[in-house]
Amino acid sequence: MLFSLCRSLSAIVLCLLTSVAAAAAGTAAPSVALHYSNKAPLEDLKLFDVVVVEPDHGYDPAAFRMHGGDLYAYASVAEVQPSRPYFKDVPAAWQLARNGQWNSIVIDQTPAEWPAFFAESVIGPLWKQGYRGFFLDTLDSYRLASKFDEAAQQDGLVRVVQTLHQRYPGIKLILNRGFEVIPRLKGQVEMVAAESLYQGWDASTRRYEPVAQASRTWLLAQLSTIRERDGIPVLVIDYVAPHDRALSRETAQRIRSHGFAAWVTDSDLSTVGIGNLELVPRRVLMIYNSADSPGLNYSEAHRFFQMPLNHMGYVVDYADIQQPLPQGIYRDRYAGVVTSFPGFVPTLQQRDLSRWLHRQMAVGMPVAILGDFGLFPDRSWVENAGIRAQGVETKGNLRLTRTDPMLGFEIPLPAVDKDYVPVQITGKLAAQATTLVEFRDQKNQTFVGGALMPWGGFLNDPFVMTDIPGSDKSRWIVDPFAFFTRALQLQPLPVPDITTENGRRLLLAHVDGDGFPSGAEFPGSPTAAEVMLKEVLEKYTIPQTVAMIEGETAPYGLYPQLSAKLEDIARRMYKLPHVEVASHSFSHPYLWNTSVKHGRFIDNPEAEYHMNIPGYTLDLTREIVGSIDYIRKRLAPPGKPIQVFQWTGDTAPSAEALRIAYAAGLLNINGGDTSISRLNPSITAIGAHGIHKDGYLQVYAPITNENIYTNLWRGPFYGFERVLETFEMTDKPRRIKPVGIYYHTYSASKQASLRALRKVYDWALAQPLHPVFTSEYIRKVQDFHTLALGRDGAAWHVRSHGQLRTLRIPPTLGKPVFEGSQGLAGSNEGIEGSYLHLTGSRAVFGVQAAGPAAGARQPVLLHDANARIARWTAGRSDRSVEFELQGHVPLQWSLAGMDDTCQVRASNRVVPPQKSAAPARADVRNYRLNDASALIQVTCAAR
After folding, report:
1. Coil, strand or helix: which one is 828?
2. Using the 8-state DSSP alphabet, how is residue 367 labeled?
3. Tens-digit pLDDT profile for residues 684-731
């Protein structure tokens, strides 16, 4: 594509404009991917316009189409596998030959009944499944037969295509080869494909190999003729070993240089190849030992190592050393591998782990080892990793001779004791290593406790993190952001950011129903629920989510005598337009997974797993689906949705509990325990975005609740004030979390706790924040985990579900370019770079080293807003724009690129700018409206 031809920053804008214009005119070929595995990563593949899949694997083309792309079904025209369901209905007389390399039968194209059979038996079922595009393979396979009539076979192929168009109006077809029949199918073929222009796969020898020059010359002539004579886009599919991304990238570029669409992939078409776009891998595989903690939630790998990677834009997958390690981990989707072991892994797994890690290193997958190696590095580590541990002996005391600046991050390096035995860097990799911790002994021998290596890097205990004696607190010794960046060789990328939208930090509030019936310490002895309704929900009209515990409010629960009153209060809460309906379960389970016992559950067989509701035995479906049904039928206003489930107790649901919630169409939240404060000023107290279990995502609350700040509700009851420290420390020096006001109903039961709650709300309302419902935040976190990011030369491409609307552009990446971009409304500056405002689910943009020069013409752009962009339309001149904001509170927004000639109108009236004593930028104007939504027009004189 055109972006791949951009070679200088000055050309980016021209390339962007040209490409956008070409796409609008319908002349640009779509980006195409092919992936035939039974677990195609559609969340990544949605980056492409067309994705060809094996339809028997059960994908949903209608659902995929909602992302803006299109799933095409693979269908073989001239060959059939015996495993296909329609094979039994293929008459023996139609079976022309056998393709031994692929164990398939070649089909004669000449029988008069064949086109109808193919249309009805092959395409028909797929059409019913929702497929509207098809990749028709093996059109030339009849040539494998010993005898055939070339003209008759081609006539049969033409009849097949024509029959498909007759039976299925609007069908879209990509033909693999069939060059001779293309002129006879004018207007009936969307694209023509061919395999192996530069690199191919020999199925007989099972080897990747270059294509011979003669074959390339012939194929290139055929494809050029189709493109030039017939005006049909051409797709070339080449094959390269999946670990060789450099050759794949080079091959794709050579294909594109001819004006063809490219797809360079592995022989099984089971990896994300490189085509007109290249997916930027955003996944990191974390290897851990489940025996080291009660459950994944409590492991060091998850508690400490995931958050920094999330903040840098990466999704973390986990692999347990107790299970077979995953195969097929390549740079197509994974940016690196991290191991987290506090000690040795089981002896039976050590050899497998060692071999697996060496394979990753050998194929160029960056590996970062934090803590223990998990094994004793044997001689293979000398050869493969440049690390010597066997035979290493220190003489006398060790003296520290070098530390990297990334160490001493939150606490100084500890002194090593006499039992500490570091390793040595040796062999051919020694010259390429950068030591992080270096020692010398009395014989002046050099040892290391960590180093950056060509294959990644390692940092051994005790230089990763340390526990604070007499507490459950920890501190990072190494800067994890710096270590992961350098060890995994991470390049700057636009970071999907869940903290911010339209330049403003998000604000959400959600309440767990605990204590709803509690008596409040106020005149008249009201319930805590009554106080919360009157003193919080009715006074603070920002979006709030309130979750009930059915067992507390229902007539068959713990308080039947109060049920009528409590249900009435709940109904009054849910009638408020700014209150979102949610469930906090039926019986408030304290332990969601009884197979993972921890804390008081380990040695106490009588510990209650949930509220003691008479006659009730814990049932996950009853807790989740049943409580939702109760709230919908008895408490929520008619038509008001209930879509949020808030986890209770240890907030560590099993995969089965998550599955039930997802099957019921519910969003879920809670857990994470972010509680950084001046008493515990460590990012070890900041949780990740969430956690995956068997493919289901649990979304964490951004900030923990008042129970933690009040010493488990033992006091001081004003302790929730300290959450303001957490808000501030998760904003600077890095904005890692939004502002999340999270508490229980019982916070309204005491004077001190209610005053603290008001103080928190008042602080939040005094900040320039962007209020959202909890459901909106949850969807942003879900979108973070599935957003696809790609590159096309100098341009970045983004595709998502349209919920996450911010990319953070690190200063090392540059400044966004708006001219010729798609899906952008503006940006503003933060501590860690530019916050880029997206208008929907798709964006294309470039970056450059610096912002526009002083005096350069500036387009009108959104600088910040406290509401979502529902629509953004630039006028014929970039000095005019029309956009719609939809929010939950009176609108506030700022526009950049403004001057005294600009006029802003909303609801057919002029909106004047707000006066500002000292504006940060001369071209920024601030505006306000009492409405929560508005259509806004901006017009400025052309410069």
Report:
1. strand
2. E
3. 999 999 999 999 999 999 999 999 999 999 999 999 999 999 999 999
Q: What are phi and psi of 779, to 5 degrees?
A: -65, -30
Neighbouring-strand partners of residue 439: 400, 447
* Tokens 């160490």 sit on residue: 407
What pTM was estimated for this model as a whole?
0.94
- CA–CA separation, 865 and 832 (whole Å): 19
Q: What is the CATH number for 181?
A: 3.20.20.70
Q: Is 411 helix (H, G, I), strand (E, B) or coil?
A: coil
* Count of residues in the chain: 943
Nearest to 485 by CA among 337, 316, 364, 309: 309
76 shares a domain with 158? yes
Give which of 167, 163, 157 is closest to 192, Cα–Cα. 157
Residue recorded with tokens 């960590």:
450
* Residue pointed to by tokens 């419902």: 773
The DSSP element (H or E) to which 825 belongs, if any, is strand 824-830
Do 582 and 510 meet the contact criterion of CB atoms below 8 Å apart?
yes
Dump pLDDT digits (tens) for 578-599.
999 999 999 999 999 888 888 7
Structure confidence at residue 918 as a pLDDT band (50, 70, 90): low
Whether residues 773 and 629 share a domain: the answer is yes
Range of the domain at 878: 860-943
Query: Under 8 Å CB-to-CB from 111, ≥6 apart: which residues?
Result: 91, 93, 94, 156
75-121 tens-digit pLDDT: 999 888 888 888 888 888 888 887 767 778 888 889 999 899 999 99
The answer on 671 and 582 residing in a single domain is yes
Residue 379 sits in the same domain as residue 255 = no
Determine the pLDDT at residue 418: 75
- A 10 A CB-CB count for 926 gives 16
Give the SS3 label for residue 45: helix
Q: Is 180 helix (H, G, I), strand (E, B) or coil?
A: helix
pLDDT at 417 over 90: no
Parallel, antiparallel, or unpaired: how do β-strands 367-371 and 456-460 relate? parallel
Residue 525 resides in a domain: yes
Q: How far apart are CA 868 and CA 837, in angstroms?
A: 10
Contact of 847 with 813, CB cutoff 8 Å: yes
- Of 229, 256, 275, the residue that ends a domain is 275
784 in Cβ contact with 474 (< 8 Å): no
In a 10 Å sphere around its CB, with 0-12 CB exposed, 13-18 middle and 19+ buried, how is residue 572 labelled?
middle
From first CA to last CA, the distance across the chain in angstroms is 32
* The pair of three-digit structure tokens given for residue 577, joined into one six-digit string: 């337009």
Same domain? For 133 and 198 the reply is no
**How far is C-alpha 917 from the geometric centre of its chain's CA atoms?**
41
Q: Does 550 lie in the same domain as 575?
A: yes
Quick check: 475 and 681 in contact, CB under 8 A? no
Tell me, what's the pLDDT at 21? 35
Q: Residue 619: give its domain's CATH number.
A: 3.20.20.370
What pairs with residue 402 in β-bridges?
438
Is position 85 within any domain?
Answer: yes
